[in-house]
Amino acid sequence: MKITRALKVTAKEFFDYIEHAIVTDLKHNEIIVEDNNDFKLHSGFNYKKIIRSKNRKNDLAVEVHVDKFEKYRKYKSRFISIQGESTICYEIEEDNGEIVVHYEEEFVKSDKKQTFLEKVFAPKVGKNRKKDLRNRLLVLERDIIRRRSQT
After folding, report:
1. Residue 64 to residue 51: CA distance in whole angstroms
2. Complete domains list, the chain, with CATH
3. DSSP 8-state class, residue 109
4. Among the residues of the chain, which ranges form H helices?
5. Which pLDDT tens digits describe the chain residue by residue (151 residues)?
6. What is the pTM of this model?
7. CB neighbour burial string for 91-125, b if at least 16 within 10 angstroms, e if fewer
8. CA distance linking residue 41 with residue 67, whole number of Å
């Protein structure tokens, strides 16, 4: 699924936000230590994490592969689990202090059975899924603008 959306933030602000979210996830999953401020995300970086479920019976081990990280231009990652492989990609074009975000995601399941993730996200298909993704980008934009005003 692909969407394109103009945001009133800079490419630097957008990628700093993405990178900060990933570093926070790495610290939360104890992949890097809390006081490590020297870590730099880069293409080819891989790690493993556990996505926790409410009852812990359905915890999901995931391998994350950062396929492309061109700061201020492109971020592409794959998330591989026993349920399948999910790919996300953000590509950025700058336009007079704003950006145009081209977002793409794809999920290929590992077998024909309906997976846990499909059961959870089944209602969000087609137009509803696109609307959800557009709204997620708007929330990202609002968070970045809020952070901008706090510094």
Report:
1. 11
2. 2-150 (3.30.530.20)
3. E
4. 11-28, 116-121, 126-150
5. 899 999 999 999 999 999 999 998 898 888 887 777 788 889 999 999 988 888 777 788 999 999 999 999 999 999 999 888 999 999 999 988 899 999 999 988 877 655 555 555 554 556 677 788 888 999 999 999 999 888 7
6. 0.82
7. bbeeeeeebebebeeebeeeeeeebebeeeeeeee
8. 11
